[in-house]
UniProtKB/TrEMBL annotation:
Signal peptide: none
Species whose genome carries this gene: Achromobacter agilis
Keywords noted in UniProt: Lyase
Pfam families in the cross-refs: Ala_racemase_N, D-ser_dehydrat
Similarity annotation: Belongs to the DSD1 family.
Annotated GO MF terms: D-serine ammonia-lyase activity
Domain D-serine dehydratase-like: 262-369
EC number, UniProt record: 4.3.1.27
Single biological process term from Gene Ontology: D-serine catabolic process
Designated name of the protein: D-threo-3-hydroxyaspartate dehydratase
UniProt key word Transmembrane: no
EC class name: lyase
InterPro entries associated with the record: Ala_racemase_N (IPR001608), D-amino_acid_metab_enzyme (IPR051466), D-ser_dehydrat-like_dom (IPR026956), D-ser_dehydrat-like_sf (IPR042208), PLP-binding_barrel (IPR029066)
UniProt key word Ubl conjugation: no
Length: 385
């Protein structure tokens, strides 16, 4: 969209659409940058949350990176914008190696992830055939959350490391992700998880080096553990993604406050059912996603917290139910709150459970700044794999 023809204020936007508070986003970025500087560790921001060139430029320490991605579509889009230091932070399948090599031929230092001998041999074989020693990290399972080599399985770890190093690829190091930190019930538990994450990665790196093999990179990270790690000794880089916007899951964990959440969905009141205590809006699950991440937390925020058009939260007023293109706003049961008196056509913001999932429903960010209704920019985002 040409900014000259863009809507000038929040009130003039068609809904539902995705709002991004640049003031809050900048504060979130600066907070984690300062924490990593205090630890003396490089931050490799994960770009899977924003999927936007404009946001990426504000996240990365240089225009070339470093950064992490979760799809090759992301890698290709960011490479086209000049980002050349990328980690494809999902286990790579053999069928995707042609796209990996195509990016590397364009000058992108793209690293892949493996967690088995079969995957390591597939990468090494194709690297040898192409004459390009594809760099790879070995994924470590620090918490049983997803893929990875068990930290105590030194035999498997070293077999994978040797397959990469000796058969044609480049053994770049190890990586892990404490996804179970999203289930912690206190900041202290998150800090404990961060130490578990660190020890798993550093211990595996030490085992690889003790076997006479290189392990220059020790990569850890999740947004919760990045914010509450007590020590990052032995770690070379930290990855985090959703911190750029935050969301209600992060607020429920105590990683941020609701006031830090930068992304929201703008919606319009389209009807009332006073006998039922409902306000109807034009943001359903197609605009919000079906993510109910806070349902597992102490406070269930249903499909999101309701705010006025300026972003001020209505206490205990929630997007309680969603259909495909309609949402139902209700008061939290037992709270004693009352529905705001909102006329037909009134604009509201819905703060999401999971920023990654909600942003994925939209093609662009309408950018605002704290305390102003003006739209200051329109930033495209992309989808797909």
């Amino acid at each position: 969209m040409n900014l000259a023809t863009a809507p000038s204020t929040v009130d003039s936007l068609d809904t539902p659409c995705l709002l991004l508070d640049e003031t809050r986003m900048t504060r979130n970025i600066e907070r984690l940058n300062a924490l990593m500087a205090g630890h003396g560790v490089q931050l490799r921001p994960h770009l899977k949350t924003p999927k936007s060139i404009e946001v990426a430029r504000r996240l990365m320490s240089t225009p070339q990176g470093p950064a992490a991605v979760s799809t090759l579509q992301e890698a290709e889009q960011f490479a086209a914008a000049g980002v050349t230091d990328l980690l494809y932070a999902v286990g790579v399948s053999p069928a995707k190696l042609e796209r990996v090599l195509a990016l590397r031929r364009r000058g992108v230092d793209l690293t892949v992830v493996v967690d088995s001998i079969d995957a390591a041999l597939a990468v090494a074989r194709r690297a040898r055939e192409a004459g390009d020693a594809i760099p790879a990290l070995i994924e470590i399972d620090c918490d049983g959350h997803r893929a990875g080599v068990q930290p105590g399985n030194t035999e498997q770890l070293l077999a994978i490391a040797r397959a990469l190093h000796n058969e044609g690829a480049c053994l770049r190091g190890v990586m892990t992700h404490a996804g179970e930190s999203y289930g912690c019930d206190s900041v202290e538990a998150i800090a404990d998880m961060a130490e578990q994450e660190r020890l798993a990665a550093v211990g595996c790196a030490e085992a690889i080096r003790a076997a006479g093999l290189p392990c220059p990179v020790v990569s850890v990270g999740s947004t919760p553990t990045a914010h509450f790690a007590r020590s990052l000794e032995g770690v070379t880089e930290v990855r985090a993604g959703v911190y750029v916007f935050f969301d209600l899951v992060m607020a429920g964990l105590g990683v941020c406050a609701v006031d830090d959440i930068a992304a929201s969905v703008l919606t319009t009141v389209i009807g009332h059912q006073p006998d039922k205590g409902w306000i109807l809006v034009d943001a359903g699950w197609m605009a919000m996603s079906r993510d109910r991440g806070t349902a597992r937390q102490r406070v269930d925020q249903l499909y999101g917290l309701v705010c006025d058009a300026d972003g001020k939260v209505y206490p205990d007023v929630l997007l309680a139910e969603t259909n495909q293109e309609q949402g139902i706003i209700k008061v939290r049961p037992g709270s004693g709150a009352v529905l705001p008196d909102l006329p037909l056509g009134a604009k509201l913001r819905i703060v999401p459970n999971h920023a990654c999932a909600t942003c994925a429903q939209h093609d662009a960010y309408e950018v605002v700044r704290r305390g102003s209704p003006d739209i200051v920019a329109h930033w495209e985002r992309f989808r797909g794999w």
